[in-house]
Amino acid sequence: MAKMASPMAKEQGPMKKKSNLAIRIWQYRYFYIMFLPVLVALILFYYLPMIGVRFSFYKYTPFAPPTFVGWDNFRRLWSTPTFWDAFRNTLQISIFKLFLNMFLSVSIALLINEIVNLKIKKAVQTIIYLPHFLSWVVVASIFMIILSPQGGFVNQVLLSLGIIKEPIYFLAEEKWWRPVYYFINQWKETGWGTIIYLATLTSISPELYEAASIDGAGRWKQTLYITIPSIMDTVIIVLILNLAKVLNLFESVFVLYNPLVYHVSDVLQTYVYRLALNANAPDYGFSTAVGLFKSVVSCILVLFSNWASKKVRGRGIL
Amino acid sequence: MAEKFSFKKEHRARTIFHIVNFIFFAIVVVAMLIPIIKVFVDSLDTSGSYGMRLWPQNPSFSAYKIIFTTTALYKPFLISVYVTALGTFLGLLMCTIGAYVLIQFEMPGRTFFSYLLLFTMIFNGGLVPTYLVMRDLKLLNTLWAIILPASLNVYNLILMRNFFEGIPRSLFEAAEIDGCTPFGIFTKVVLPLSKPALASIGLFFAVAFWNQYTNFTIYISNPRLYNFQVKLRSLIIDDQSLAAASSEGIYAKTVQNAAIIVAVLPFVFIYPFCQKYFVTGITMGAVKE
């Protein structure tokens, strides 16, 4: 790469070592100029907000200048039941979702891999990837209409089959909200989740299967002793990568929840959102404190994932 | 995988498995599509009572006509187009220049820049501090609040860098001997060789910008700047904005359904042609090596 700046190289010879760095910086001047927009955006939109976390130690509302209050916001957070509800919900929902998605994606990928006709295989893949690209607003709108208790498709079908007597308000009853949320999530994301497993499955050497069938192993045994162990690494990697993101749950909940089901659906991010932006009296200090709590726990999870990833596959996620 | 499809004894179990598997996927595909099909059918149905029908009565495009003739409904669509076009362009620009600088291995400060980018994946300021910064930068209630922060996507930048690392260095050296400046190498060597990566990352950006919703609800309070997702949301949540529709004798529900279809329309048009780029995009990042 030193050759990159070869027209400059001849100047470098007689110079003293001390000014070497200055020369190299000069050689790369165009690159620094090119990097400038990225650097500016990075500082404005990522690093300035990091400095803003200091407000978690301030009493801060739009109507008065911030005043330092030490650990007050965190003490309040510790004794607020709705905060703990949100924290518990975040963990329960994301972790359940993570394992459910993994189980369904792996199963569907294994079955897609068994489809012999390539055209059917391609068509199935095309269709099940599709919902991933729909926005959460669109997905929520579709399901709010389909699941509506006033003439929604699902309630109509269930009523006409005699399975239920009264229409069910799927998104407004505590016992229904989570199952429905998981279903909608899987509807949207299962197909997309199969891509990575299918990529791994196609990379398994056919010789392994040939050898196994010569040894007399049937299809079931081949799946059990060759296919599943081969994708196990990928399963673990996906698990680790997603572990880092468990607290980021936001938009999917935000568009599907409502005040009737806050108790089972409110997550940290939606809680912060309501505290800071939607309330009549926005509380920037306290909501920043909740956000900081979330960021710190997330940070620990990312570092743990990175460490685990290095152990499992020899390279980190960062 | 050459397999005989027959009911002879030795193949019977296998054949039954294939049939069961086929039926299973037929059910899965139908279950995936029914919600979308139902919404589409109802958007054409002007009877107002949809029930369980999967075929429209008195099909007409009047609901779509309302969306594209009511200013309050088509303006958000144009804003979505604008944000997506500009955002995708800026996103790819940031990604490619950032990635190009990060593959200059001898450049002083390169490692520092890498760490500066990576650290944002470990820790972030969070919703409220970011909102306060936007407020202080006077970006609230401007579309820049949506476009600028999202155009620097560290994950996409790193995908792009991984792709650039695969370009043979000898090409750079050859171009340099021919008298190319660093910027010339970027536009004449790096970019033309990266078309597949530009296509997939570009599509990721386009989908992300088209689907923007959360940031609009956080940074934009002026209804004239709402994009189609925010508009769709308000159509579904409160029927107030549908007064125009009902005045023309069209059911609010029909317009809601049509708005959902309009929100996914641009994507459905390009999806069949671009599917392979989406898939390369994800495998490029995840199963590299």
Description:
Helices cover 70% and strands 3% of the residues of chain A. Chain A is mainly alpha-helical. Chain B folds into two domains: 1-60, no CATH class; 69-286, MetI-like fold, CATH 1.10.3720.10. Chain B is built from 14 helices and no strands. Chain B has helices at 12-44, 62-69, 71-102, 110-122, 127-136, 144-151, 154-165, 169-177, 182-193, 195-210, 214-219, 228-237, 243-247, 252-286. The longest helix of chain B is centred in the C-terminal third of the chain and has 35 residues, at 252-286. Chain B starts with 11 loop residues before the first helix and ends with a helix. Chains A and B meet through helix 2, helix 3, helix 5, helix 6 and helix 7 of A and helix 1, helix 3, helix 4, helix 5 and helix 6 of B.
Task: Write out key terms for the chains shown.
heterodimer, A: 318 residues, mainly alpha, MetI-like fold, two-stranded antiparallel ribbon, 2 strands, 70% helix, globular, disordered N terminus, B: 289 residues, 2 domains, 72% helix
Assembly state (oligomeric) = heterodimer
CATH superfamily of one domain in chain A: MetI-like
Shape of chain B: globular
**CATH hierarchy class name of the largest domain in chain B:** Mainly Alpha
E-strand count of chain B: 0
CATH superfamily of the largest domain in chain B: MetI-like
Structural class of chain B: mainly alpha
Tell me about the largest β-sheet of chain B.
Answer: none
Look at the helices and sheets of chain A and give the structural class.
Answer: mainly alpha
Provide the gyration radius of chain B in Å: 25 Å
Name the average pLDDT of chain B: 86
Q: Looking at CATH, which topology of the largest domain in chain B would you report?
A: MetI-like fold
Q: Could you tell me the mean pLDDT of chain A?
A: 87
Can you tell me the residue ranges of chain B where pLDDT is under 50 for at least 5 consecutive residues?
none
Per CATH, the class of one domain in chain A reads Mainly Alpha
Query: What fraction, in percent, of the residue positions of chain B are helical?
Result: over 70%
Number of helices of chain B: 14
Distance between the termini of chain A: 24 Å
Tell me the CATH architecture of one domain in chain A: Orthogonal Bundle
Order of helices and strands of chain B: HHHHHHHHHHHHHH
Would you give the CATH topology of one domain in chain A? MetI-like fold
